[in-house]
Amino acid sequence: MAEIRLTTTVQPASHDRESTDGLRIDLTPWDLQLLLVGPIQKGLLFLKPSPSHRHSSTIIDHLKASFSRTLDFFPPLAGRLATLKNPDNTTSFSIHCNNAGAQFIYAVAPNATVADILEPVYVPRFVHSFFPLNGVQNREGVSKPLLGVQVTELGDGFFIGCSINHAVADGSSFWNFFNSWSEISRGFDKISRPPVLERWFPNDVDCPIGIPLCDKQLNGGFISFPPQFQERVFHFTKEKVAGLKAKANAEMNTSRVSSLQALMAHLWLSIIRCRRSTSRTVDADEETTFRLAIGVRPRLQPPLPQEYFGNAIYFEAVTTKAGELLKHGQGWAASEMNKVIASQKDDGIRNYFKCWVKNPRILTMTSMTSNVVLPSSSPRFNVYGNDFGWGRPVAVRSGEANKSGGKVTFFQGAEEGSIDIEVCLLSETLIFMDDDAECLSPCEAHVMKLKPLFIFTIYIWNNLKILN
Predict the structure, then answer these.
(1) Could you say which architecture CATH assigns to the domain 229-381+389-450?
(2) Residue 266 designated active-site
(3) Same topology for domains 3-218 and 229-381+389-450, yes or no?
């Protein structure tokens, strides 16, 4: 769908060789566990400014220049991975801040419109072509860019797709870069949240950490987006999120369950219930797992700064039998998630870190089986504050990387307090979710019907800003 017009390597605008050349940042277990999966891919959809105010070529040149200036603050993203073969036949990985540059792509899809992306029930497959570094594993950052952006010009809009090597950054770091780029694009001289580049290691852990990767793993192919899966965005209003939270807490006679935990539990139940309605019957005794990504920044003592640049996540699981999950219900599932998350404290995190060093566990796509629900991203990330100078985005979408049946991506909704969830499942499961009253009662599956009015409102607002 997207026809590439220009591909360039962009370096920081005012590269300070004395401070960054030769700088190497050793990877932590939180980074290393992600070497064999794909990059983080998130993108924003914008309406095109009125032609009388801003020409497309001017926008592309401006975005490219501001992209270069933003790299001044994020030297790891202009570097490459470096490897070191150890005497014990393990391999150590680090980030070499060598100013090799990031990738910038300008593409056009003149026959595609904003409505073509927002109105279909399922996310169109062509959206995946709006992202760079498709089919790349994070381990390939030795020779490939750690950061790529693609600006795709549509008939009436722009899509800015960003791909960051997941062994270098997690979701918090990803959106810090995206937010910072939009600030520089709006004319800021400095960014509001400079990244903290030093990686965290316990005092009694030697680095760099060596991991045993066999030739089969290092030379393995990338698993592309499976054709039998579809993606769909479900929208939950602020009021309905609050209702789910109240319901879960009432069922368990507690106040500890958070909004996100209640929403995750509701979604888990919906997926299992609708899978049982399809030809792929889920047996009551079959185990089902909800794999939680635990953020450690606020859990360590002292806590890591929110601007810590790198991965600060690891994975814990809530596992039960499908029949038990459906029997106990949403409040119980949310409470089980709450227990696992609340139990993650400083001493446990440090112990996990040290145990991982002794027995490394590398995440692969083949480990994502059909009975696993894998959430990613967070509605806490600032998505709709990314104004590059011509207005706020109208939607957010993700790329094809790391997609499997059961992958769910949480985004901040366009309206305050609302949450969007991008769900990747077999098409027949999504069809049953559409017809399942229990699943859809607390959400607006057909929110896309409201988009034309929303788009018109954003268009007027953005152009009023330009005129002012």
Answers:
(1) 2-Layer Sandwich (3.30)
(2) no
(3) yes
